[in-house]
Amino acid sequence: MTVSPAAAPVPGAAPAPSPAAAAAPPATSGPAFSTLPLPPHVLANLQQLGYERMTAIQAASLPLALAGKDLIAQARTGSGKTAAFALPLLANLNPRRFAVQAMVLCPTRELAEQVSQEVRRLARAEGDIKVLTLCGGATFAPQAASLAHGAHVVVGTPGRLLDHLERGTLDVQALNTLVLDEADRMLDMGFAEDIAAIARHCPATAHRQTLLFSATYPDDVAKLAARYLREPQQVRLAEKTESAAQVAQRFYEVAEDQRLHAVGLLLAHFRPERTIAFCNTKQQCRDLVAVLQAQGIVALELHGDLDQRDRDQVLVRFAQRSASVLVATDVAARGLDIAGLDAVINVDITPDPEVHVHRVGRTGRAGLTGQAFSLASMDEMGRVGRIDELQGRPSQWHPLAELQAAPGAAPLRPPMATLQLLGGRKEKIRKGDVLGAITKDFGFDGADVGRIDVNDFSTYVAVRREVADAVLKALNTGKVKGRSVKARRL
Ligand code: AMP
């Protein structure tokens, strides 16, 4: 397989939408849809839907996908990614042929419902296109009956789609487009084997177009792409399109002895689920973590003094949403690919304005909501001036007194807890084994389980905080892959 170099950033590519408008439509400053090889009735429908110009991800992927290429596209929800695969799959479709010609795999039922709706909206131009959503949690028989009536497009979660394929209620002989949506999340949720089994039912890569969308591009997604895509083109948007200029930034003036306390106030007031707090020194990191922990906030420290094992564990816990705040120095945070941050706090103002822009650029990415807060003392005003100069606009100041926790609000808590199992890759433990034990053997709901990370000697599993102790007990008394395991809550 050859992966072509990343597509060039689109001229005038769309910036991330303003974080203040979470559900606002994505920025659409790309070329007009009329520049694409789409038939007039499709363009007319797009216009009716209010789609005139493309989003950055659409402008980068649609020309390639409509030319029939397999694609690896890095894009998040809210970027307009659904249309980026829905239009090509519809272009491949023959409405007069009553057979499933496109299948979209999604990690969750909610996403599958959203994707189905968007495909239906975009399909209006084509006449009678039947789109079915096939997810677990719904009864099987009515889905089978709908399939028997014929569908053009199926959208669903891997487990249920595979169930239909194995029971013969879903036939994909005529499939010409396969979409893997949010591939990274599907792998995190332990769907790798189901995806492999589904792919075995599909026509070979030479006879189908495969489009893979993923917010991040870790090794396991690259391996997935290598197995199921044919000479894919890679579409990745330049970081520049997500620049700090689009992030809402609030500055607060603090006295030195207010600074660490102000971080707690920011968290209580804005209640971001996941925050990185940047400090200029390791000592400041340590002091802040102590202050936050004393307030019952799950804050973890990331700095150069940690050994590799501790560092990995901190990053896993943060990625698994079982910690609210990562307190880091710039050096320690360098090169980290942490997605989905709600807030960045500049606990100290950095002397280097470029570093400030880089810190702030970690939030508000690609349509995700995000905010950046900066705490500055009188002594740091010169640094703020240099930041203003670099950003080409004055900073927005707010009074510290505006920060107030909602009366009666529960303390900020992460939604998940991380359980560590002794035993990992070396013991041949796979994500599916752990997920299977917790859901099938111990009877917990799939929705209780979050991301699973398997390292060489340990496995980390995120579970909802409310059930964490019960899952821990089940793990320590039950078996995973036929063997007893030792588990602890981090
Ligand atoms: P998605 O990232 O696919 O979930 O899309 C986010 C939202 O943006 C959906 O409500 C789409 O209907 C809308 N949308 C996608 N592309 C465009 C576009 N080019 N112009 C206007 N709205 C769009």
Question: Please, could you describe this protein's structure?
Answer:
- The chain is an alpha/beta fold and 490 residues long.
- It folds into three domains: 235 residues, P-loop containing nucleotide triphosphate hydrolases (Rossmann fold); 160 residues, Rossmann fold (3-Layer(aba) Sandwich), CATH 3.40.50.300; 74 residues, Alpha-Beta Plaits (2-Layer Sandwich), CATH 3.30.70.
- Helix content is 35%, strand content 18%.
- The chain has 17 helices and 20 strands.
- A seven-stranded parallel sheet has the order 3-4-2-5-6-1-7, sandwiched between helices.
- Strand 10, helix 12 and strand 11 form a beta-alpha-beta unit.
- The longest helix has 15 residues.
- The two termini are 41 Å apart.
- The site of adenosine monophosphate (AMP) has 16 residues, from helix 3.
